[in-house]
Amino acid sequence: MTTTTAPATTTATAPALNPRSIALAHYAARALLEGVLARHGATFEQSVTLRAVTAAGGSVGAGELVAEVAGSLKAPEAAVRAVVGELTAAALLAERPDGRLELTTAGRELYERAGAETAGISARLYAGIPDADLAAAGRALALITERANAELARRAG
Is 96 in contact with 59 (CB distance < 8 Å)? Predict the structure, then answer.
């Protein structure tokens, strides 16, 4: 006889928001995202870079893009420049005559296809969580991010 067991986590037994619970949620969600991206031939870093260009309206200065993505990923600017090079070589980004980088049609389509697929996953992950809980978690995570960024700035300076 075969039995199946439902996941054992409920809000009644969930741990408090702490570094481990944040990390577990981050890595579980990132693994799902990276699975989607791999099917589309893209990496997490490339996705973050395409998102930054999209958020900037479809084109952005190269220096601004590198700084934005490096800040988001807490990655060295040289590593981000390499990702921009990969995206340009794959014709997902193109350099305009004025030096700005812009999404190509292929870059926009990749970003939209992967985004549509991950939107369904996100909807399932967030389903049933009360809006008040999401708002409280959002406020807590924003404050933690702000404090971590301030700590990083203190250590760098």
Answer: yes
